[in-house]
Amino acid sequence: MKHVTIRALARELNLSVSTISKALRDSYEISAETKQRVLALAATLNYTPNPYASSLRGKKSRTIGVVVPEVADSFFSLAINGIESVMKAMGYHVLICLTHEQFDNEKLILKEFQSGRVDGVLLSVSRETLSGEHIRDLAAQDVPVVFFDRVLDEVQAARIVTNDFESGYAATAHLVENGCREIVYLGISESLSISNRRMEGYRQALADHRLPFRTGNVVACTNDAAENYKTVKKMLQRKAPRPDGIVASVEKLTTTVYQACNDLRLRIPSDVKVVCFSNLEIATILHPSLTTITQPAFEMGRAAASLLLKAIKGNNVMSAEMVIPSVLIPRGSSTR
Amino acid sequence: MKHVTIRALARELNLSVSTISKALRDSYEISAETKQRVLALAATLNYTPNPYASSLRGKKSRTIGVVVPEVADSFFSLAINGIESVMKAMGYHVLICLTHEQFDNEKLILKEFQSGRVDGVLLSVSRETLSGEHIRDLAAQDVPVVFFDRVLDEVQAARIVTNDFESGYAATAHLVENGCREIVYLGISESLSISNRRMEGYRQALADHRLPFRTGNVVACTNDAAENYKTVKKMLQRKAPRPDGIVASVEKLTTTVYQACNDLRLRIPSDVKVVCFSNLEIATILHPSLTTITQPAFEMGRAAASLLLKAIKGNNVMSAEMVIPSVLIPRGSSTR
């Protein structure tokens, strides 16, 4: 016999999955009338809760899932250390899953987590993620979700973020103050909220300094290092107006930018000045040393973990939002 | 995004659908070469099997665990990518757990994995791991374990390693050939098999070049960056005999060595030459660019994953051992 799901009940009654889930749990948020309808249909269709999911509900797995795009970025590896420092102290296991920036992977991972394997999930969405059905489905199974760093605005969930708009602004203003007039912004996917906020900060800083915003100065990079190298090189070879400043919004573009400048015999900072969003320890030993926007990765991980523990204990933290500011660290790559 | 089907893979490779399907299931009927081609294309095109179709087999979790010391090291993040490229093509979930180099964590993680949560485990032991009871306990629960990179010799299990002895030898011989006479070896825990093999290679290279081995030239580094900085700086300040070459056996010591040289106004390579075991992409843009022993991280991950799949299918692979060689890439930090 086909297993009747919460989703099927929701479809049949034209209600949301989360309403059904709450009605079945006798939540005070749902009216008596709705509960009645849900229970009647559940009885008719012989609905039984997913045994894995809810029979384990009582005894927690004391395990949480951390879903991130990748670990080759120092932000995520530091954030994971922050998460584990909190979780370990509370006796929780931490399972890490990677989406490799792909929405399909993210969906599969969250679906797997519906089975009661974890008590809660910390999520930084992939750059392809545009809709949040898979996140709501997980929350509807009583698995709380806390966003960190990369959030999906349409989903209501607790979030720990950094001040991406202000950081994009600060990076750009810093370059202007050091004499740049033609500043290029190296971005990634347009869907990714953090990237957009950083770029909005860039645009605002240009406007406040009475510099024109040119769409040609916003360069979209991909996951392919060779392709990015070509794109950046081409951009740096542009004659008039020649770019004299670069805001790189992704850590891995550091190597690309330095390599392209090197190969074109452009000197950093005299020919072109560079600021990169990066937590790389190695920034200090580059030549010249790299000016960075350094994110509070470890602290964000800690804060997100603490918030998730509260949610697991039954507190409603859905509307919690914490912004931990990033820091501009000026070094050799952007001085006059 | 368009879903890639087995049919599409078949068309692309000019093979039958049944051949592709068998290759993905690792059938003995298909040659290793064909399997390799199919898996490579499946990874490139981001093929995922229909999860419902393939969960019909047995009551496996179709999940594997990957247990590594950390992800802030590019070797591990690349190896994980290799592991996932194989596992994803076969429709497996990958859960990553970090030991942070602590034996107690490793024991807890492996104990948790005894519960049937995973069908198999890929393990790179922590630097504290000296005994293998926890690994044998897991294997005794019919959860196969495959070592990669860092193995514990006392446990009989399949292993994918690189040629650490030869690499330690090659790094040292390279420095000798470039004029170094007083070469320091920066190591880590003495218990870690890979570190020992690298150091044995260093010793053998010195002996073969009729250079004395001095215990004072072997420096033990820790997990504490500030402490390592002090240790390395002190070593570089030594008067007679002054060190003129460094073999750094751990990637994260790169920053330490460059920083210490910089602060002491020692020039690389004229005052001291450096070779580092590292997979950092950024090695090319350091000043000078860094000579590395580059490990086949991605390939090791792929090989370990394939071996684990065989073990999960019931093949006895316990005595399998594969050595994938590392490569010395000479760059600016070690030239004459």
Task: Explain this structure.
Chains A, B: InterPro entries: HTH_LacI, LacI/GalR-like_sensor, Lambda_DNA-bd_dom_sf, Peripla_BP_I. Chains A, B: Residues 4-58 form the HTH lacI-type domain. Chain A is of the alpha/beta class and 336 residues long. The first copy, chain A, folds into 3 domains: 6-48, no CATH class; 60-162 and 297-325, 3-Layer(aba) Sandwich (Rossmann fold), CATH 3.40.50.2300; 164-294, Rossmann fold, CATH 3.40.50. Chain A has 12 helices and 12 strands. Chain A has helices spanning 6-13, 17-24, 32-44, 51-55, 74-89, 103-112, 133-140, 164-177, 193-208, 225-236, 253-263, 297-312, and strands spanning 63-68, 93-98, 120-123, 145-148, 158-161, 183-187, 218-220, 245-248, 273-277, 291-294, 321-323, 327-329. Chain A has a 6-stranded parallel β-sheet with strand order 2-1-3-4-5-11, sandwiched between helices. In chain A, helix 5 links the parallel strand 1 (63-68) and strand 2. The longest helix of chain A has 16 residues, at 74-89. Chain A is elongated and about 75 Å long. The model of chain A is unreliable at 51-57 (pLDDT under 50). Chains A and B meet through helix 5, strand 2, helix 6 and helix 11 of A and helix 5, strand 2, helix 6 and helix 11 of B.
Overall body shape of chain A: elongated
What is the number of strand segments of chain A? 12
| SSE-based structural type of chain A | alpha/beta
Q: Order of strands across the widest beta sheet of chain A?
A: 2-1-3-4-5-11
Question: Do you know the CATH topology of the largest domain in chain A?
Answer: Rossmann fold
**What pair of chains forms the biggest interface?**
A-B, 42 and 42 residues
> What order do the SSEs of chain A take from the amino end to the carboxyl end, as H and E?
HHHHEHEHEHEEHEHEHEHEEHEE
Taking all Cα atoms into account, the compactness measure Rg of chain A is 23 Å
* Fourth CATH level, the homologous superfamily of the largest domain in chain A: Response regulator
Give me the CATH architecture of the largest domain in chain A, please.
Answer: 3-Layer(aba) Sandwich
CATH class group of the largest domain in chain A: Alpha Beta
**How many separate structural domains of chain A?**
3
Major pleated sheet of chain A:
6 strands, parallel
Report the oligomer: homodimer
Keywords (chains A, B): DNA-binding, Transcription, Transcription regulation
Protein name (chains A, B): LacI family transcriptional regulator
Domain HTH lacI-type (chains A, B): 4-58
